[in-house]
Amino acid sequence: MNDLLNICLPCGLCCDGSLIGHVQLNREELPALRELLDIEDENGNGFFLQPCSKYCDGCSIYSQRPKQCASFNCGLLTSYEQNELDFDSAIEIINRVKQKKIAIEKNLVALNIKLKSESFYFKMVELKKVLQKIKSESSLTKKHIELTVDLEELDSLLTNSFGISSY
Ligand code: SF4
Ligand code: SF4
Description:
Layout: H1 3-8, E1 22-25, H2 30-34, E2 40-42, E3 45-49, H3 67-71, H4 75-81, H5 87-110, H6 120-137, H7 142-162
Antiparallel strand pairs: 1-3, 2-3
Bound molecules: iron/sulfur cluster (2 copies).
């Protein structure tokens, strides 16, 4: 196992729905992947929603994973690969994202905000709109403000460290 693999194993943020909401599939790879994953059809191509059912402390179909997964390198991995970031700093950033996610999920429960999406990524897109609506219709409570700040911090962590476009 090399160091590059080591940074992805404790991370998994591109498989659990944090960084991306769905994985796009080409028509050529559909037959083989249909045996492994629950695929939605889309104009002859396909996709599946995250969190990925094959993520379990790493990819359980690694040698057969979709092309999008095989070619995906986030900004954090690239920085690590290019020695711009050391292992401990990379893991610290990954942990900060995970802690932010926990804080957001906790406040969603406390505020009884129900979101329809299963994927954390799409949930955050929905949440942004919900918070804007609450702000325009009434004043935000302390918990709403905490949630807004956590969402903004997570958004900027993902944009700046992972190179992912904003929720
Ligand atoms: S988000 Fe980046 S560091 Fe994390 S598992 Fe995916 S490619 Fe690896
Ligand atoms: S197929 Fe594997 S690499 Fe692709 S999203 Fe699922 S767990 Fe991650």
